[in-house]
Here is the input.
Amino acid sequence: MNKLFQYVPGNSLIHRLNPVTKIALTVVICAAAFITDHLLFLVCLLAIDLLIGLIAGVAGRTWSIFRGLVKIAAFLFLLQVLLTRAGNPIFWIITDHGLLTAGKVVLRLIVVCMPLTLVLAVTRISDLTNAMVQVLHVPYPYAFTVSTAIRFIPQFLEEMSGIMEAQTARGVAFDQAKGFKKFSMILPLCAPLLISSVRRTDQMAVAAEARGFHLRTRASAYKQYGFSTGDLLTAVFCILLLAAAILL
Amino acid sequence: MIRFEDVSFAYPDQGSSIRDLSFELERGEFAAVIGANGAGKSTTVRLADGLLRPSSGRVLIDGEDTRNSQVSARARKVGFLFQNPDRQICKNTVREEILFGLRTVRSEEGESALQARAERILAEFSFTGDEEPFALSRGQRQRVALASIFAAEPEVLILDEPTTGLDYRECCHIMDQIRRMNEERQVTVMMVCHDMEVVLDYASKALVMAGGRLLAAGPVREVFRNRELMEKASVLPPQVISLGLRLGDGYETADTPEAMAEAVLAHRKKEGASDE
Here is the structure.
């Protein structure tokens, strides 16, 4: 699970894109998924997500993200189908409208979540931060906050897994419980997780201050983030995708 | 009490971490697992508690294969103190924290018996019980975690670098309590420790590891006096042992500063007598 948010080194076409282009592509895919109401277009967007993963050479990571999302989506699909009453009944309380709505909801969920995780697999977080500051003129403290929040996700997951291991060793039956029971056992552990997170954040803030955090400006970054033909083609693709989402 | 039989283990996507590890700890033994970083010490103690399952071979706790039962079901018999106490502590007061541990492993004793047991442990560890664990110092939090494990009265105590980051006084405080438990209740202790002075002071047996293999197992003093072994394991023996070995001439047996001082005085006396 922790590896889902880790950068995968590579030199693919996607890796070489400007981090801002990658952010733009992610935003456009997410926007297109919310704008369109066409089931087939959502399927196409999903295919684009998978294709991006394939071109970036992170097929294994893409597949594991997809698998994880399908599990969540299956639960969501079931809820949606059982709770939607509108439309013509097909079987028991299941209606055609319910099936269609549920299909769109879960597809939208998968389509939106995949590029967000894929962009982290093909871009170093430091590059994301620097490009946001340099190209998008985002103030460094804000860019740093965003990148730190992303960086903290795997750390929190690791911390949670460490807490669960420690609690199992003292007799809490995490290794025997499943489903909702396990979830209810996890809830009380939010206190140690919260405390360790606050401590870690505090330590990080002190370390950042000690290294001259407030002295940093746009000019501080030594790496330049230029735009190539690949970025231009991606920009054209983004415009076409957005147009298609609006028109369809 | 703890028996490793040809245990090997590899983390996913990584090479072999532990290879053909075999050793046995008797009831009441106090063993320290020593070695350089990456030697496989923490993996070994995690295997001992069943938090990790061997790729091959088996680990037996009191004759029972760790693969045949869940870690949580073994918690009454095996206590595990982690390096970071914050992962173990999850309640708002020290009393609640100790009771939480007791309720998970000794629920059949009834609430009043558990309360009495908790009060006894609180007194033993000099806590009032109303302290907020997360407001205490790191050393105090480590003691809270230890008290919670002590309360369950395990037969085996596994410690993964329990004194890291503690000052000398806190370190002695914790280690003295562990020693008392080891001596009074014959609890088997298996401890990973980077502080060789602590190992010399408290452990009776040393398991020396390097590259995922067990290089040697034996009495602590014998192990520390084996220069070749220490070099191979990239371990610096305690200063008093190093000094004794360097001086030679009868000083090698001095394993405490007091013994070293006595040896020096005896040597001087001897020299004085020969001068006369």
